[in-house]
Amino acid sequence: MHASATQPLLKAVLWDMDGTLVDTEPYWIAAERALVESHGGVWSHEQAMQLVGQSLMHSAGILQAAGVNLEKREIVDTLSGQVTERLRLEVPWRPGARELLDELYQAGVRCALVTMSEGPMAREVVASLPKPYFEFLITGDTVSQGKPHPEAYLTAVERLGETDPELTVDHCVALEDSVPGVASAVASGVVTVGIPHQMPLPDDARRATWDTLLGHGMADLEALVASRASANVPAGAFLGQAN
User: Fold this and answer.
1) ∠ CA 197-76-85, rounded to 5°
2) What's the rounded Cα separation, in Å, for the pair 192 and 126?
3) Is 143 helix (H, G, I), strand (E, B) or coil?
4) For every residue of 101-127, which 3-state class applies, written as one string?
5) pTM of the model
6) Domain 25-89 has CATH 1.10.150.240
7) Pair 184, 201: CB distance under 8 Å
8) Residue in 28, 16, 38 with CA at minimum distance from that of residue 147
9) Could you give the CA distance from residue 203 to residue 94 in angstroms, rounded to a whole number?
10) How wide is the angle at C-alpha 20 spanned by C-alphas 132 and 30, nearest 5°?
11) pLDDT at 27 over 80
12) Which terminus in the chain has less CB density within 10 A, N or C?
């Protein structure tokens, strides 16, 4: 890793899962549609987009409003089970994700998964990777407030700090694809990169934006960390766009 004496090192990358690491959104949408239709309702693409990046319990409430006559916990279990079954058949990786993961791993940059999917599904994805890229997982069933609340990212930084007391949000970069996910990461204070996928992200100078992870490497993440430090801006007030 490269940094001057006055610039903080890139120490950790915090990865969203659905839509950032893996392209599971089509799996979720198919499961949602099947569930709503089994209860006599109709599930549109626009309705599905409301759920992208949201906590599962929040999503379950929207599905109840769409006519699903089940308890929220049952809705979450049904959807998660169907998506997990699809993942066991094929994990649809996002372009450039595995390459970046491997580069970070080889360089000793710590990685954590920060997702609103629950533990069993997240572990299914992680288990399909060839190396132990992720030090730990923060999942939707381990936090009290889901994205867009910053709790998940703040928890990840706290966990990282247990073995590196000097680590702060300024040493961490979050990779996110959704509006709630980006909001969560920005609110936590970590350097944030938005990689829009299923839906566009609004303009926001507090984050960088990449069209894809493909072609981006550790040096790009180090440059974002260094740019915030050199600009002497507080966490959450970022450096503008970087495509």
Assistant:
1) 70
2) 22
3) coil
4) HHHHHHHCCEEEEECCCCHHHHHHHHH
5) 0.86
6) yes
7) no
8) 16
9) 23
10) 110
11) yes
12) C
CATH fold group of domain 12-23+93-231: Rossmann fold (3.40.50)
Q: Whose structure tokens read 């120490």?
A: 11
Helix, strand, coil distribution of the chain in percent, nearest 5: 45, 10, 45
Question: In the structure encoding, which two tokens stand for residue 178, read together?
Answer: 């959704």
Report d(CA 96, CA 238) in Å as an integer.
Answer: 24
Contact 99, 107 (CB under 8 A): no
Mind listing the pLDDT tens digit for each residue in 204-239? 999 999 999 999 999 999 999 999 888 766 665 554
Sequence ranges of the chain with CATH classification 1.10.150.240: 25-89
pLDDT tier for residue 25 given thresholds of 50, 70 and 90 = confident
- What letter does residue 204 receive in the DSSP assignment? -
Residues 6+ apart with CB under 8 A from 234: none
Identify the residue whose tokens are 């600009």: 231
Q: Select from 64, 23, 5 the least CA-distant residue to 214.
A: 23
Q: How far apart are CA 16 and CA 25, in angstroms?
A: 13
Distance in angstroms (rounded) separating the CA atoms of residues 183 and 174: 11
Residue at 160: amino acid letter: L
DSSP class of residue 18? B
Residue the block writes with tokens 């970022």: 238
Q: In what order do the strands lie in the sheet with 110-114?
A: 136-138, 110-114, 12-15, 172-176, 191-194, 208-209
For Cα atoms 155, 55, 222, give the angle at the middle one, nearest 5 degrees.
45
